[in-house]
Amino acid sequence: MAKKARKPRKKGMTRAERESYNHWLWNLEARDFNKMNQQELAKIAGQYQRQFAKRAKELDKLQAETGIASEALRAARSAFENTRFLFSPQFMPSSHIVRNGKIRYSVPQLRSIVANYAHFFREAKPGQETIRTNTVEGTRRWYDEMVARLNQTNEKVSDALGVPPEELTPADYQSMWKAYDLFKEIYVEAFAQLQSVKTQELMYQCYQEAPSGTSTMELVERMFEKAFDRVALNGDLATKYRDASLDDSYYWGDKLEKHLAERGFNVIKWRSNL
Predict the structure, then answer these.
(1) pLDDT at 7
(2) What is the pLDDT of residues 136-158, one digit of tens each?
(3) Rounded to an integer, what distance in angstroms lies between the CA atom of residue 171 and that of residue 272?
(4) Cβ(76)–Cβ(114) under 8 Å?
(5) Contact in structure between 62 and 68 (CB atoms under 8 Å)
(6) Where are the alpha helices (DSSP H) in the chain?
C-alpha cells in the first residue's frame, strides 16, 4: 500500500523576516491599531503577550542576580495594574485574551491593552539619546551610564563636605535617579535655573540626609527646599500641573501628589520609599 503523501510543512519566517516583523510590531502607534478590528487586535495582543513574558523573565532574572531593575518593566506592570475595565475582567500579562474560542475583551479594551504593550516595546528612534530599558542590554547600559554620572557627583559632594564617598548600591542609584527625573518633570523652571549638575548634587545630598522611609515625592520636596531655602508653591509647578484658579503662593503640602494625579501625572511611576 502506497504511503500517503505528507502535507508540506508550512515554512516559518526567516530571521530577516522575523526581525522586520518585530520592528513593525514593537513600533505600532495609535493610528495603526485604531484601524484594526477585534480579531486583529486580539491576535496582535497575543503576540505582544508571548514576547512580553519572555522579555519580563529575562529582566526579572537580571534584577534577581544584580539588583539592576528595568524601569520600563516596572512601568508596564503598573500600567496594567491601573487599567480597569467596566464590564470585563482586569487584564494582566498572564490573563487569557481568548477563552473557549471567544475574545474576552472589546475593541476599545484591546486597544488599551495593545497600547500598554506597544509603549513597553517601542524602540528608540534613530538619533534619540534616550536609552530604552525594555531589554537586558538597554537596562545594563542605562545603569552603567547612571552610575558613572552619580559617582562623579558622589565624589564632588564628598570632597565639598570633607567626608569619604558613600558606598552606593544599585537600589541607591535608582532611587536617586528617580528623584532627579521627578524634580525635572514637575519643577521645570527650577530645573532650568539649577541645571543638571547642580540638581544631581542636591539629589545626592538630600538622599544621604533623608531618613529611611522617605518617599520619592518627599525627597524631591527636600531638594527644592535645600536649593531655594523655602517650600515649593503652586507657582513653582510646571505650567501643566499648576492650578491657575489658585494663587501662586498656595502651598499644596500633602495634597500635592493627589493634585498631580488629577492633572494626568503618572504618580505610580515615581512612587517608592527609600
Answers:
(1) 45
(2) 999 999 888 877 877 777 777 66
(3) 11
(4) no
(5) yes
(6) 15-26, 30-33, 38-66, 71-81, 107-121, 136-161, 170-186, 188-209, 216-228, 256-262, 267-270
- Write the CB contacts of 110 (distance below 8 Å, at least 6 apart in sequence): 38, 41, 42, 45, 97, 103
- What integer is the mean pLDDT of 218-238? 95
Average pLDDT over residues 97-106: 92
How far, in Å, are 1, 5, 17, 114, 264 from residue 183 at the CA level?
A: 79, 68, 43, 30, 16
Q: Three cell numbers at 114?
A: 495593545
pTM attached to this predicted model: 0.66
pLDDT of residue 15: 87
* Cα–Cα dist 172/269, whole Å: 17
- Residue 180, all three cell numbers: 532627579
Chain mean pLDDT for the chain: 85
H or E segment and range at residue 102: strand 102-103
The grid cell for 156 is 564632588
Whole-number pLDDT of residue 10 = 47
CA 231 remoteness from chain centre:
28
Domain chopping of the chain, boundaries = 15-121, 136-270
Residue 172: predicted pLDDT: 82
Closest among 247, 272, 267 to 257, alpha carbons compared: 267
